[in-house]
């Protein structure tokens, strides 16, 4: 039976956006944990470790997110984990995101002048303490705007989870479009919801960037 | 039970994979040319145009950059027929990619134009050069140089992003995966191979862009 | 008739008044030193003379042609008024030779060989003939500024404006630029300089103009005026820069 696209459908779409946000949050935490390790590894004095992570980043940044999503979706059963779109999406987005977030944070860390490390060392701080008390606090300021920008990318990228059947905003849109035969109205609504989620973050990122640029 | 990875069947389907690679390359080339043209035009409007044009371009850029490419693609392919505009998959895919890339390119080109210091423009004017001459001889080259790396990485990202056109049944490289998958039942291996092919394409693209940069800007 | 006539001009940025009722005549061959504290309006005056900044009242004429007139071909006028900036503003992507020949080639349509010959000639005048094919990044600050002066000379201007051309340089490099300025002055070029080099102003300035809070506060023959300032403001200023 064909229904019309109504207020109720809009509410369903808005409600589905919470799964988009849930996936975004999960993936952000995963990307942040893994990405921080990558960033540290990339500035570590152990050369093989730097090369390994650099190669990993190169590979991830040279393959489509969609491939990671499907590879992990079909690969999990091979290591004995049953097929589960949520787990596959969370892992894929975390791996993919960590390569980008790791590079953003590495950039922020290396943008702090070498003399700051030396100043820390001359006070008798250990390497970890230099990082913890001198370098990281200064680089956070630089890292925040692009990190917020990354978050926007992440929100948009979660739409790809629809392709492995995870019912988030875009998948809910596909289902509604199929049920109502009003694809244009449905996808405009879906796009608008994404816009409402992303636009404030984009503006925030931009204003932070301006503020930090001005302060420098 | 241990699962043995087996790639032979996947490689046996190399013809399907090659067809997919060609479609992906064609899509990427169309999108890059179209996206660059739109980007340059919009950036010029954004930097040098009248107020209403600046606002129009800004709105275009914001709308595209704050919504997913997949939804933009669905809107064009599934949504436009509501208005009697029925596009085949490839055309819809190119249109969506061009519109999407155009917005990102606009921002990159704009940043490139603005990277040329005002003092340079002033120095040109004070030598008696016209606005067009200042652009041609003083702004263009440094601006191109400044925007090139960002443009190149955006193009590589776009090439990878073309994979989503498989979702409207365009037979690109990613779509080839599902064909080979249904023939060989080697689900995981197929995507490893496809990933490797994309990685190879990205490698080639980066190499070409680096060479182009070297020949145009660095070799002096 | 004076070569440069500035008649009762005023300029403001929004509510901020930067020039108030400024008048200045510069005859052919004169070397005028504009001095004063930063923010006194001297650089703005220079930029107005070249039409880089619009003015709200008054008139500026160069060789009888009004600068602040919409019907004036500003591009044509600027070919006769050279300006050298504090920060050199060489074009980093062009060689020294291309920096100098760009305007002669594309504005005056000189053939490339003639333009290159011209570049060689003006570089000789600033003592950098051997740097014809160097790039700006390969030169010291002093050399870059000398190239900027050569670039301006290549247009054979009737008057040259210098906006604190030694302020961005290390002290040991200012000497070579001042020497070039001296030789340009000796050749009879009409020059207006914004400068903090009081020694130079005294020796080569035919006239000094002291600006204070957007007005001309005191002017006169350079040597006499700098030796015996009449107003308290000029005295204070000279004390501050000389000690």
TrEMBL record, chain B:
Pfam families: BPD_transp_1. It is found in: Cell inner membrane; Cell membrane. The keyword Transport applies. It comes from Alsobacter soli. It is a multi-pass membrane protein. GO terms for molecular function: transmembrane transporter activity. Residues 21-209 form the ABC transmembrane type-1 domain. The lineage of its organism: Bacteria, Pseudomonadati, Pseudomonadota, Alphaproteobacteria, Hyphomicrobiales. One of its GO terms (cellular component) is ATP-binding cassette (ABC) transporter complex. NCBIfam families: HEQRo_perm_3TM. This is ABC transporter permease. The keyword Transport applies. One of its GO terms (biological process) is amino acid transport. Belongs to the binding-protein-dependent transport system permease family. HisMQ subfamily.
Automatic annotation (TrEMBL), chain C:
The keyword Nucleotide-binding applies. Residues 4-238 form the ABC transporter domain. Its main location: membrane. One of its GO terms (cellular component) is plasma membrane. It is a peripheral membrane protein. It is found in: Cell membrane. Keywords: Amino-acid transport, ATP-binding, Cell membrane, Membrane, Nucleotide-binding, Transport. SUPFAM superfamilies: P-loop containing nucleoside triphosphate hydrolases. It comes from the Bacteria. GO terms for molecular function: ABC-type amino acid transporter activity; ATP binding; ATP hydrolysis activity. Transmembrane segments: none annotated. The keyword Transmembrane does not apply. InterPro entries: AAA+_ATPase (IPR003593), ABC_ATPase_HisP-typ (IPR030679), ABC_transporter-like_ATP-bd (IPR003439), ABC_transporter-like_CS (IPR017871), MetN_ABC_transporter-like (IPR050086), P-loop_NTPase (IPR027417). Belongs to the ABC transporter superfamily. This is Amino acid ABC transporter ATP-binding protein. It comes from Alsobacter soli.
